[in-house]
Input
Amino acid sequence: MNIHEYQAKEVLKGYGVKIQEGIVAETPEAALEAAKQLNAETGTSWYVIKAQIHAGGRGKGKIQQTDSNGVVLAKKLDEVPEKAKNILGGTLVTHQTGPEGKNVSKVLVAQDVYYPGDSEPKEYYLSILLDRAKGCNVIMASTEGGMDIEEVAEKTPEKIIKEWIDPKVGLQGFQARKVAFALGLSGNALKEMVKFISALYKAYDATDSSQFEINPVLKTSDDQILAVDAKVNLDDNALYRHRDLAELRDLSEEDPLEVEAGKSDLNYVKLDGNVGCMVNGAGLAMATMDMIKLSGGEPANFLDVGGGANATTVEAGFRIILKDPNVKAILINVFGGIVRCDRIASGVVEAYKSIGDIRVPIIVRLQGTNAEEGAKIIDESGLKVSSAITLKEAAEKVQEVLKNA
Ligand code: GDP
Ligand code: MN
Output
């Protein structure tokens, strides 16, 4: 689960990570109040106004309606409401949002930490994530902060420092120092960076996160080290033991169909293709998606209904797939192991009748226990559903319906 920058910064601050201070606002008036409060608390007289969406690249991104960037500087208090207004309610398009962009309903009004006249602010990149192959956490750091890290990795991979941390042992002092040294720091800045990295790792570990990305981490000319941006990705599987963090979820940032699927305990991921699919088991779902591609279609989704699929799950899955306007055909591919094929077939027929107006052709491939009985139920239902027993047969039927679509 992703959270917003303003939420992530609060979480980090709670673990002693130094951050660029800010206050979230939903209206231009509230943005002005936020700026006044920041002025009183931090003494800042310049402010940064930052669109809050679950995507990066906001600084270079544009609000479609006003042409404002997603991150802007206000050098006077009375510029704040106007600049906030140009972001709030707009659609922000960045290289991470796709062309449709994301609606902005909140801005973070933050203190300007690149002090006016500071001739040597320096931006670093720092992230912590799980290295699944090594079974370790890894800290990645770079002197090329503020840049797209994928680009750094591609063009100058030697500029990315990696330090692996055994989760059983935790981060050792020498490891934090090693990273700070490798970033070329010395003196007070080195000490501050070591503190920053240690606090960041503590936060990562304690929140059961799967990824932290702080880009940029800023070093000011007076050797403070601060998080200017914060992307925090929490591990969904651990949220049950972090009720407070689970509450930070912003459903409006997530795909509505994925949210609905989650409520029915379905494992659904929306994709861009034209053939919807419903499968029991993740491995079979992947194979089915490959098969759709081989037969000339593009999968519209990944949907694993789980091993114990029944009429209710099938109906919920159907409803979700049908809400995707790109879907031209649906392929149901179920292996009857725990569940019997005739039960799935009856479930499909029941769901079909209960939903009613289904306009796309449906191909059902049932294999395993009672496969033939299942096919018979489908074929005799009188509905616009065709059955297949082998994968090849199913692929051919998909090809055929796409040709006629
Ligand atoms: P992102 O574009 O979504 O990654 O958003 P960031 O939070 O990283 O902000 C984008 C850029 O805005 C940063 O790389 C900085 O260059 C700039 N920025 C952020 N905070 C400040 C600030 O306090 N002062 C100034 N002058 N620039 C800032
Ligand atoms: Mn950033």
